[in-house]
Known about the structure:
The protein has about 280 residues and is an alpha/beta fold. It is built from 10 helices and 7 strands. The chain has helices at about 5-15, 30-45, 55-70, 70-85, 160-165, 195-205, 225-230, 235-245, 245-250, 255-275, and strands at about 95-105, 125-130, 130-140, 145-155, 185, 205-210, 250. Strands 1, 2, 3, 4, 5, 6 and 7 form a 7-stranded mixed beta sheet that branches. It is globular, with a radius of gyration of 20 Å.
Amino acid sequence: MRHGLTDEEWNVIEELFPSPASTGRPPADPRKMLNAMIWLNNTGAKWRDIPSDLGAWQTVFKYFDRWNSDGTLQEIVNRLTQFSIDKGELDGDLWCIDGTILRAHRCAAGGAKKKDPDEPADHALGRSKGGFTTKMHVLTDGKGNPLGFHLTAGQVHESTVVDEVLMTANDLTDSEGQGIAWPIALSGDKGYRADWIDEYLIDLGIMPVIPSKASEDRSKRPVVFDKDRYRNRNIVERLIGWLKEYRRIFSRYEKSAKNFSGMIRLGFIQRYYRTLQIGV
Length: 280
């Protein structure tokens, strides 16, 4: 299958899925279920259009919902991040942050109003110049490895959630459980220029690489703008472009932010497999 995992790729995450019990009804093949989810994320098809050879669509959705809720999808992302760290592929010098608008299809409206602690009240949906939208805030290292994301309604400004986006990478570790340090520098465009952001990053030991606005006195900022590092900021824009190649991320169909986050995690998984080139 075009979008399926190779044997080498599956071996990296296989131990995350325990062996089935010797009694009772046997569970679905987890590799097959993951391949079906990846196929769906790539093609943007409806759940009911999942090919029968990948499994019944109801079963695939059941596993997607379960793995997204119990943290299995995030565990896969974490395992691939650890694999990248162990190989020395994570850039500790520069991380980059940015946000992008994602159009929501009309079927994304009408999400349930029942209280879910993991679901924002607005389902991360709102109105912006682009219409009915979600905003995806992304954090990456200087090599394009996705480190974390945060979803808000489309009209929310990027600068208001810098701390929440950074905290998605607060618990990154290598395969032995050793935490990794914050990067030397964090780069963002002028949308992130605010005194409180400079102070927040400096308190974390991170140098802000954010250009000043034309109307302000650059000499009053506590840091000198690093033009050389800023030239590499486009890596986060390239990551966003790569993620938007997955049709279920390019257009939001999920009613809940929780389920849409699952699609983004699948995109992160595919991105890591592409950059790590396992078995190549």
